[in-house]
């Protein structure tokens, strides 16, 4: 009971620190001044939403393009600063904004009353209708929201479309996913009957996939709900004012219709022509590089942490034992995804310069350390007590007995379990893609967004993960066989 109470106190203390820190940040509006001083405007987006934001390949590198990106570039130019784009899941964007990981969010976002409670919005820079994407073979069946009765409708989680489907199509099931590409795959595979999305985006997908069709389901949408605006932290009035000046210029010059949308259309056409997977091999190669880097570093630190906490849990010093138990039980009792988000958005609130890659490595290392600790502890306890007693009788200290007698024997026993943990890390590292780390899963999603192909990039990523895990499994098996003959 004492341990449970201490754990609860620790959780509430951390939450209290984050909440109080957030209030301190909100005091005083020096947001615009800070952006100009650092010389960089950090923009959060979800680059799977053509023609608003998506990716293209230029000289083997990933470039973010689209209507929203052009608006962000115009804003950054007016401020006299450089533009830095952070790509992450749509439903993580406002969290990143509130925890000051980004200076603003531009992602075809509707300024709904619910969102206005948490963040500030600029004026609307573009207004579009709410449409639905369906399979062309179902065109005769579906005409409006009433003809979908009893069907399953897909929508991006956290979006206006999700809210509209939930409120106005109550006789339907709703399937929410973070990525539009995944929803389009679900549509093509029959998992959903339609996907609700903004007009321009729906038309973009339909124009690049002959099996899909766009319809206007005639949602009842108020003027306050339609249109896209830029989101800023609560209290960042100076940023909102500056953004509104840029939006006014864009509207006066009609840049969106004359320049930004046609330019996005050209990029989309170019992507469609170059949509073979071979053209995107550099994406997958970069993903493998990041995945192996995260795994290697996390294995190293996870093993060190695991060894330390295993010895602490076996220690007769009560405080060391309790700390180890708290750490192991807490980490094993919470999902890795939550831990990754807490390290990046939570601890990252205090250490704002914490890169996503470093945050991902920290979270994966801490998570692995808890499981490795239990593996090592079980290995040590599997060695008969007589081995330690014999070593001590020969004049060895407790430390020497562990180093030269217990640990080498325990390592032989736990090697298969450790190997499984290391292999698992390769696969679990894919979770860091939710905070924008460019691992294999993240790169796969970029390829999906760029090529409008959903299943093939998944298959390629699956094969690449298998090659990595199978290769590591063989290496670990080689060392295991050597240990048996040692």
UniProtKB/TrEMBL annotation:
Spans traversing the lipid bilayer: 290-312, 353-373, 454-476
Membrane topology: Multi-pass membrane protein
Signal peptide: 1-26
MF (Gene Ontology): transmembrane transporter activity
Matching InterPro entries: AA_ABC_transptr_permease_3TM, ArtM/GltK/GlnP/TcyL/YhdX-like, MetI-like, MetI-like_sf, Solute-binding_3/MltF_N
Annotated PROSITE patterns: ABC_TM1 (PS50928)
Keywords: Amino-acid transport, Cell membrane, Membrane, Signal, Transmembrane, Transmembrane helix, Transport
ABC transmembrane type-1 domain: residues covered: 288-468
Matches recorded under CDD domains: TM_PBP2
Keyword Repressor set for record: no
Main location: membrane
Keyword Transport in annotation: yes
Subcellular locations according to the entry: Cell membrane
Record-level GO cellular component terms: ATP-binding cassette (ABC) transporter complex
BP GO annotations: amino acid transport
Similarity-based family: Belongs to the binding-protein-dependent transport system permease family. HisMQ subfamily.
Protein name: Amino acid ABC transporter
Source organism per UniProt: Liquorilactobacillus ghanensis DSM 18630
Lineage per the UniProt record: Bacteria, Bacillati, Bacillota, Bacilli, Lactobacillales
